[in-house]
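2024-03-11 09:14:02 INFO queue: dequeued item DALRD3 isoform 8, len=376
2024-03-11 09:14:02 INFO validating residues
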Amino acid sequence: MLTFLQQLRVDWPAASERASSHTLRSHALEELTSANDGRTLSPGILGRLCLKELVEEQGRTAGYDPNLDNCLVTEDLLSVLAELQEALWHWPENSDPGLAGAPDTGTDGCLVVHVVSCEEEFQQQKLDLLWRKLVDKAPLRQKHLICGPVKVAGAPGTLMTAPEYYKFRHAQVCKASALKHGGDLAQDPAWTEIFGVLSVATIKFEMLSTAPRSQLFLALADSSISTKGTKSGTFVMYNCARLATLFESYKCSMEQGLYPTFPPVSSLDFSLLHDEGEWLLLFNSILPFPDLLSQTAVLDCTAPGLHIAARTEMICKFLVQLSMDFSSYYNRVHILGEARPHLFGQMFVRLQLLRAVREVLHTGLAMLGLPPLSHI
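2024-03-11 09:14:37 INFO prediction written
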């Protein structure tokens, strides 16, 4: 699973050695000494702990299941808890504010978000409370982000592991690129990184475009991978690459003396933007983007209750719509015009507009942990 997370460019700190549950096991045994009543336990089971008091301390209105009472403490459960504890202590100091504790606050200033399926929510709440009970410096702030079930569209009962899913999407990306460019590019080292990014973009957009609590249907058809498919992550990446090509073309022409250097922004005449598509990009994407960031970029860890909401679908849909608007505009309007002085003014304001579009796309992709591509 760690390899799969690394393929998806998800940060998960790994300790230099396997997380040890020795300390947790000792604490658990101390708590369990008076609770087992001398009964013989099955292998791997240490006993039961009562969590009811902790539930009441946290407050039932906070979202913990009121039926939480006894927790069966097993070696496997302690191993999972030890991994969480190890990850907490090895989290990078420069990680996102609010997710890792400040150096002078330790775990008191840390927010732990449990991302868990709806089927495993009850068990994860047990893990949350067990962490508090067994570890003196367990994170004080723990939130739960619940995700709906994931199913394969049109194929009930189809089972696929996470690594198999990644391999399947990667093969589709390679196949689509071979059809577009000709030849088996998967064997070309220059394309290895590109195919990896496109595969991750495909998976992240497919999964994050649905609200976390909603049921997700995976569409495994090849048509979902095409750069022309306007609902896919590859489409967004394709338009990022088109922007990169545009600005590289301007740079090369400028170095050849065809175009002058870019003038100060304050000297540009934005009244030269006449096309409806230009104002569509400005008013539907560039100007609303700061408000979108305020709604999606930071998890609301101060909200009351156990559960937390993430609005990943908003940023995915925004980036797809922006890519559609840009693609329509770019296909219709010639940005780099003839090298004539009287045309430079309009060319520069259009380039400045598309600079802003590029910045919005890159920032949005960064929120999803995706690097922009300069070519596809």
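2024-03-11 09:14:37 INFO annotate: Residues 97-105 have pLDDT under 50 and may be disordered.
2024-03-11 09:14:38 INFO item closed
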